[in-house]
Write a structure and sequence with these properties.
This protein has 166 residues and is mainly alpha-helical. It is 52% helix and 10% strand. Strands 1-2-3 form a 3-stranded antiparallel β-sheet. The longest helix has 32 residues.
Length: 166
């Protein structure tokens, strides 16, 4: 059983710390569960295994996150470009890499205008409106193209003639 000690750094005297019993480890935890999870880093125990590939995990939440890699579902979508992702972390990396300038502008605006606490919601709302308008325009273009094709319009020759005009 791990050693217990009272919190001695001026904190709540009733708080019990659970101390790691591994050699040369000085970590302490506020709960038995946190200590148990930590001890697995020393033992290498991975009690949660993926049924698809066998990969082991220390925590169930990590297994659940991993399971998404075996699925075709992409529940996380970028508000800036509608690209979809299997994991929230991949979406965040995408936004930082491709849309970092917009995110930086939002952060700068928030610092300069602290009273505007819902700026991200405002930006998200405007982006969603623009995305809807873009999607509507795409749907109209698809509908018109299908109508033209169904009516026998030779779209390929039309584009070739248009290109040749330039």
């Amino acid at each position: 059983m791990p050693k217990r000690s009272r919190h001695e750094d001026g904190g709540d005297a009733a708080e019990v710390l659970f101390m790691c019993s591994a050699k040369d480890c000085t970590q302490s935890f506020a709960s038995q569960w946190s200590l148990t999870r930590h001890l697995r880093t020393h033992t290498g125990e991975t009690p949660y295994s993926c049924i698809d590939c066998g990969k082991g995990f220390l925590q169930k939440c990590a297994l659940d996150r991993h399971a998404a890699t075996h699925s075709d579902q992409r529940p996380w979508s970028c508000i800036f470009c509608d690209k979809r992702f299997k994991q929230k972390e991949y979406l965040q990396l995408h936004k930082e890499k491709l849309h970092g300038d917009i995110l930086a502008d939002i952060q700068t605006f928030k610092k300069e205008n602290p009273e505007e606490d819902d700026i991200e919601n405002q930006v998200n709302g405007k982006i969603q409106n623009l995305t809807k308008e873009r999607d509507d325009a795409r749907n109209i273009a698809k509908t018109l193209t299908n109508r033209l094709l169904n009516a026998g319009f030779d779209i390929e020759n039309h584009f070739l003639a248009t290109i040749n005009d330039y």
